[in-house]
Amino acid sequence: MSTRARSVELTVSRSALQHNFQQIKLASYGQKIMAVVKADAYGHGAVPIAQALAEADAFAVVCLTEAVALRDAGIKQPILVLQGPQTSDECSAMARLSLWPVIHDGEQLRWYMQTPQARQLQAWLKVDSGMGRLG
């Protein structure tokens, strides 16, 4: 009995992914490139996709758990955490792991300012332009 919920299967070619990344790099005229691997790289496996995109300047994930998985796999590039810290402890963990938190609201800003290592965090400020989107 199959445990697959869907009858569709997708195979990602590592070489095609790397080729496409190189094309983006060429078209970017030397600008930095951040690869978004949130939601387990949209179900394709964040760690293997990040490893395949080892030339990316940075990665973006949704939450601390996703960022920890990348760090545990040896990913050294900066990692942007799109939802930012959900507790003051997460803010401290982000500093310890050299992650880039996105600050969405006053409470997150307060946690950030109270974190002793706040100066080490390269925080990003979320501005809702009306779409209400996270990424």
Please supply descriptive tags for the structure shown above.
135 residues; 5 strands; 5-stranded parallel sheet; globular; alpha/beta
Outline the structure in words.
This protein is of the alpha/beta class. It contains six helices and five strands. It has helices spanning 14-27, 38-43, 46-52, 64-72, 88-96, 106-114, and strands spanning 34-36, 58-61, 79-81, 100-103, 124-125. It has a five-stranded parallel sheet with strand order 1-2-3-4-5. Strand 2, helix 4 and strand 3 (79-81) form a beta-alpha-beta unit. Helix 5 crosses helix 6 (106-114). It is globular. The relative contact order is 0.12. The mean pLDDT is 89.
Shape: globular
Unreliable spans are none
Any idea what the radius of gyration is?
Answer: 17 Å
Termini distance? 38 Å
Sheet with most strands: 5 strands, parallel
Order of strands, main sheet, comes to: 1-2-3-4-5
Structural class of the secondary elements? alpha/beta
Percent of residues in helices comes to 40-55%
SSE string, helices as H and strands as E: HEHHEHEHEHE
Number of helices: 6
Architecture blueprint of SSEs:
Layout (H helix, E strand, L loop, with lengths): L13 H14 L6 E3 L1 H6 L2 H7 L5 E4 L2 H9 L6 E3 L6 H9 L3 E4 L2 H9 L9 E2 L10
Parallel strand pairs: 1-2, 2-3, 3-4, 4-5
Helix pairs in contact: 5-6
